[in-house]
Amino acid sequence: QYEKGKENILHDVSLKVNRGETVALVGMSGGGKSTLVSLIPRFYDVTSGRLLIDGTDIRDYEARSLRNQVGMVLQDTFLFSETIRENIAIGKPDATLEEIIEAAKAANAHEFIMSFPEGYETRVGERGVKLSGGQKQRISIARVFLKNPPLLILDEATSALDLESEHYIQEAMDKLAKDRTTFVVAHRLSTITHADKIVVMENGTIIEIGTHDELMDYESQYKHLFTIQNLN
User: Fold this and answer.
1) Cα 132 to Cα 36: distance, rounded to the nearest angstrom
2) Is the pLDDT of residue 161 over 60?
3) Res 223: pLDDT
4) What's the pLDDT at 120?
5) Which DSSP state fits 14?
6) What is the CA radius of gyration of the chain?
7) Percent of the chain residues past pLDDT 90, beyond the cut
8) Which parts of the chain fold into alpha helices (H)?
9) Residues 149, 151, 155, CA angle at the centre, nearest 5°?
10) How far apart (Å, rounded) are the C-alpha atoms in residues 177 and 188?
11) Cα–Cα distance between 139 and 145 in angstroms, integer?
C-alpha cells in the first residue's frame, strides 16, 4: 500500500529470480511494474509479505548499503548542472578520468562527448538541458558501468527516444546487463525477447511468467500485446 488503510497496489505476487538472470516486466500502464522494482532499492517497503535477497529480508539491510549494490537507469534521467565528467562520477566519486572514459565508451557515450569543444569538462546545464534525451540516457548508463553493481534496474529507459538513440542505448544496456541480475520494465516488447523470464503484470498482480517462446506458444496476454505492437 502507498497509504495505510488504502487498497493494495500489489497483491498475489510471487516471483523467484536467480543470480545473473534478466527478468522483463511487461503489461499495460498502471499494472504495477514500476512499483514492484521500486521495492528492490527500498524506495518503498512492503506492507505485507516479504522480499528476500540471498535469503535475507530486504528490511534487514541498511537502505544505503543496499542501494550501493543497485544500479538504475530510468526513463527520466536526472543530471546535475555540472560537467559531464562529474555527472558520470556520481556512480563512483573517487574514479579516475581513465575509469570515467572507459565507462562512457561502454555506454556508447564517448564519441558524442568528444564532439563537444570541452569534452568531458562540458557543463550540461540545469537538468542536462544542453544534451538530447538519448545523450542524457547514455550518461546515466555510463554512471552505472562505473558503479559496477550486481543488481540492475532498467525502467522504461528507451520509451521516449527516437529509433537511432534507442539503438545505441539498447546496445549499451545489453552489455550492461551481462552477468548481472537485471530487471527491465519494458515498453517495446521487441527489446526483451531474449530475457530469461518475462513477467506479465495486470492490475497489480502477475498473470503470466515464461520465456518469449513459451508465452508465444499459446493465446497468452503477452502474445496478444506482442502481436499488436508488431502490427503497429
Assistant:
1) 29
2) no
3) 94
4) 96
5) -
6) 18
7) 57
8) 33-38, 63-67, 84-89, 97-106, 110-114, 133-147, 163-177, 212-216, 221-231
9) 110
10) 17
11) 10
Q: Looking up cell 534487514, which residue turns up?
A: 60
Alpha-carbon distance 48 to 142, whole Å? Answer: 36
Other C-beta atoms closer than 10 Å to the C-beta of 97 total 10
pTM of the model: 0.87
Q: What is the dihedral of CA 174, 107, 39, 78, to 10 degrees?
A: -150
Contact between residue 130 and residue 170 where contact means Cβ atoms under 8 Å apart: no
d(CA 152, CA 161): 20
> How would residue 20 be classed by pLDDT, with cut points 50, 70 and 90?
very high
Number of C-beta neighbours around residue 50 at 10 A: 9
Question: CA-CA distance, 41 to 67, in Å (whole number)?
Answer: 5
pLDDT digits (tens, 9 = 90+) for 125-154: 887 788 888 888 889 889 999 999 999 998
Question: Sign of dihedral through CA atoms 74, 77, 79, 84?
Answer: positive
Other beta carbons within 10 Å of 87:
26
Quote the CA–CA distance of 20 and 69 in Å, as a whole number: 14
Amino acid at 154: L
